[in-house]
Amino acid sequence: MVKDLPVHGKRVSLHVETKRFQCRSCTKTFYESLPDVDEKRMMTSRLTAWVGKQAIKRTFASIAEDVGINEGTVRSVFRDYINEIERTVRFDTPKWMGIDEIHLIKPRGVITNIENNTVVELLANRNKETIIKYLSQLDGHEYIQYVTMDMWRPYRDAVEDVLPQAKIVIDKFHVIKMTNEALKRVRKSFLESLTPKKRRGLMHDRFVLLKRESDLDEKEKSRLSTWLETYPELG
pLDDT tens digits, residue range 101-154? Predict the structure, then answer.
């Protein structure tokens, strides 16, 4: 029985009749080889390739359930798949590196290549010591010219320690986010000091304040002028 790709959500197995041989020297028995069948597992080569690709974006358990194999086999196929990628793919240390994080159970550091829009490495955590260790062991780290990051202090400290030649660029997304949050707090504090009548007159003002001046229509410009006349310090 040889496992094959699922069809319309149904598991598929191929029943193959083969000849069995016996070695005259050692008396061991073996079957004739089958084309397009994984030599290490009773799976077709296309199923092995499919499992490896699926394991990047799905859980091992869900793949095992779909195909009808155990989770350990999925893990083994995935390990071989990754080893083959590492053997054939050439890695270049990015001149423009990005450092960010993603939450997978806990915050984990993510190293990216900004120029190619690709992920370079996923770290165990985002601690300063982890970042320093990774950057120090990276081949050609002395050629990194720019590093984009948020305002997490350990990132800055790690880059300044290991990559003194690199210029640090703060991701504009985080700057704009903090600016909008500050503006929101100021706007709310002013609204609390207004009478209910004045507050109603400035309804939907948040969208006006967040818009670019060039995108405002005449009505919105008038509302913005009211804000600036009432609170000139906002200008």
Answer: 998 888 999 999 998 888 888 899 999 999 999 999 988 899 999 999 988 899
Confidence at residue 192, expressed as pLDDT on a 0 to 100 scale? 76
**Cβ neighbours of residue 205 under 8 Å, at least 6 residues apart?**
187, 223, 227
How many CB atoms are located within 10 Å of the residue 147 CB? 23
CA 180 to chain centre: 25
**Which pTM value belongs to this model?**
0.53
What range defines the domain where residue 137 resides?
A: 96-170
Determine the pLDDT at residue 175.
83
Same domain, 84 and 10: yes
Minimal CA–CA distance to 97: which of 79, 120, 74, 126?
120
DSSP letters spanning 197-226: HHHHHTTTHHHHHHS-GGG--HHHHHHHHH
Q: Tell me the CATH number at 109.
A: 3.30.420.10
Per-residue pLDDT tens over the stretch 18-35: 888 998 889 898 888 888
Same domain, 178 and 153: no
pLDDT digit string (tens) for 96-114?
Answer: 999 999 988 889 999 999 9
User: Are residue 84 and residue 23 in the same domain, yes or no?
Assistant: yes
Q: In what order do the strands lie in the sheet with 106-113?
A: 118-122, 106-113, 96-104, 146-149, 167-170
Got the DSSP string for 118-144? EEEEE-S---HHHHHHHHHHSTTGGG-
Looking at residue 234, its amino acid is L
